[in-house]
Structures are given as structure tokens and as C-alpha cells.
From TrEMBL:
Superkingdom field: Bacteria
Domain Transposase IS200-like: 14-67
Gene Ontology MF term list: DNA binding; transposase activity
Name of protein: Transposase IS200-like domain-containing protein
PANTHER family: TRANSPOSASE IS200-LIKE DOMAIN-CONTAINING PROTEIN, TRANSPOSASE, Y1_TNP DOMAIN-CONTAINING
One of the GO BP terms on file: DNA transposition
SUPFAM superfamilies linked: Transposase IS200-like
UniProt source species: Xanthomonas dyei
Pfam families for this protein: Y1_Tnp (PF01797)
InterPro entries linked: Transposase_17 (IPR002686), Transposase_17_sf (IPR036515)
Length: 68
């Protein structure tokens, strides 16, 4: 089934969830988490997006981002 188009409301942060396949871990140790945060920082800097909050769980990630 096709997804509905994303609703893009200016100045409204987007809640983004990234999950591991079959509930498998996304991160195996703190080094993985630090690398993810480093790559996230680089991506935010390159795109001009603003991160308001994040949560790194073992098998998923929550991001609250302004997409600019």
C-alpha cells in the first residue's frame, strides 16, 4: 500500500522514528551511539535542519527536527 504524502507545515517540528529491522538493535555499544550522533550532527549541519530533542534506544531512535 502506498504511503500518503507527507504534510509539510512550516515551523512545525517533525517527529522521526528510525527502527531496527525485526526489532533488532540499532546500537551494540556506546561507540555505536557516539558514531550515530556524530553522523547526525554532520547531516544536520549539511542540511540546515535544527534538532530539538533526541532519544537513542537500543532498537530505535526518536528525533524531533525542524526540516529547513
Amino acid at each position: 500500500m502506498a504511503r500518503l504524502p507527507r504534510i509539510d507545515l512550516p515551523d512545525i517540528p517533525q517527529h522521526i522514528v528510525q527502527r531496527g529491522n525485526n526489532r533488532l538493535p540499532c546500537f551494540l555499544d556506546d561507540g555505536d551511539r557516539l558514531r550515530y550522533l556524530h553522523l547526525l550532527h554532520e547531516a544536520l549541519h549539511a542540511t540546515g535542519c535544527q534538532l530539538h530533542a533526541y532519544v537513542l534506544m537500543d532498537n530505535h531512535v526518536h528525533l524531533l527536527i525542524d526540516l529547513r
